[in-house]
Amino acid sequence: MASFDRMIETRWAYAVLAGLVFLLALPGLFSLPTLDRDEGRFAEASSEMLESGDFVVIRYHNDLRNKKPVAIHWFQSAAVGATSGAAERNIADYRIPSMLGAMLAAIGTLWGGAALFNRRAAFIGALILGTTLLLTTEANIAKTDAAQCGILVMGMAALAHMRNGNTSKWLGVLFWVCLSFGVLLKGPIAPLVCFATIGALMLWERKYAWAKPLLYWVGISLFCIITIPWYVAVQIATQGEFLSEAVRVDLAPKLVEAAEGHSGPPGMHTAALPLLFWPGTLLLIPGIWLAITKVFPRKKAGDASADGRTAASQAWEDREAAAWRFLVCWFLPSWIVFELAPTKLVHYTLPMYPALALMAGAAADHWFSTNSWKQGRWLSVALFGAVTLLLAALPTPWVLDAIRADAASDFGPLADRVAATWEAAWNSTGLWLWPTLLILAAAGGTIYALVKKNPLGLIAGLIACSAVGGIGYRAVVLPNQSWMLATNASLSALKEICALPEGSQQWRASGCTGRAPKIVRAVSFAEPSLVFELGNKITLETETSTDIPSIADDNRPAWLINVGDDAGKKALDTLVKNAAAADRCIRFARRYAFNYSNGDPSVLVAAVIEPSGCPSGETAPDLRPGSDEADEDTELDR
What is the pTM of this model? Predict the structure, then answer.
């Protein structure tokens, strides 16, 4: 441990943490397709902001998006502008702010943790946070949560240094700057976490002097300068609609009922914690146990002032108890709020994960220093093992077959054929049991290091678990679940008949030549990921919008129709009739997909109408639900 301790005392410790988070999250950055629905909406709104040059009003598919504040769109626009450009539609570039936010969260946890505990405890806590399944996953998603976590942690770290006796006014400035960007990222969440922590500490301890740097006028002024102008500008630009809709449509419903179907009972976040905190789950229970036992300093018998050693020991215990109270106040009040709120998504509690990680890091340091871990040791191993077995079981062929079969059952009489098609696509990857075996091997090595009391082996094991588990899912398992990636299925169908819109990145990458449709008209399918992939080259139509434009307007008009619902079936029938009336050839391609966004089966039909009749002059059969996948490219001369 000597060389490890020397390394973490240097500034290189920050670079090591940032590099670790970067490497753990990097594969998913490029491998995961655009996710529905929030990521697609955020990325598309940022793209439209960059294309229009309007960095005040947020729009999605040319409509006002008055829900979330603007900062994530600024960050994403800057990242995309510095890398590829909006026209490229490269989702990895939009994820850069999330990646940087996750790296900043680990760095801030080390910096803040060093003010609460010793350097080793702070580093291990930061490392645990950087390996958690939730943070490394959010680092791969182009939305607000990872970026907010990084900025909020820096603000909380400034508070931790104030609590440790640092009276620098610039800590107050840093706090207010971080809070201002937190407000511009996700509205009231950052103030909730920060002021709940401050308020709980003051009520608990009845001490206020440590917070004096927060009153420095420069910090408060910067908060106002950074935050208020955009809210005023967007209110003016939207004629007062932004705040009204953001509160009335987005925020208020989440406080009074389960908005958008995201419901959950009280305790859901706590139940999900062992999974989302994995592999740090192994140290979670010891961390919470120490928090419970350390928040109040242990009183010494006798007069402490008579014994210099006892007085020093008591002072240290008082300081340690103050550190634990800070973490408890960071974690508990906000956690209770999210548990009681009727709307629940698992990432809502991410801003509290750094506090839990520091608890776990302090517990690990206590174990390394004293060689004592009596409370909850085997319970921790059992909980870690249970989560590991769950993660290892999910990508096995048998479990995936069962999941696919259940999803395919929604396709009725086609269930067996659809399930067989999906199974063949997965089997073609050749992954077999490798993700499962690697997860089990990494977790087994970690438990072995714990049993053998090998500190460095335990740390290496946590990193290995995060690498083979998180990367395995994000870079290998999930991107190859083609059966549940409805947008990928849509693009594949459009590509098959060369119906991707002209000028789009998808068309340029398709290898198709000749005429391309000007736009794609989507009917009964409006997933934001597809809107992002095609940008302004897609329109979201109703079932009656199947009139064929003139050849001068679009000589190869294209449609994407979800015939899995009645509106889509009606639209396809009308389109076929219109093509027959115009004596023009219509070509089809079909894909089956389970839309994980809404839990519905999707039968996605891509259709393109040629400028003249089919060369054969023959009348092809209707596009029947039972036709083979190999015969999807069909010409109909009507």
Answer: 0.92
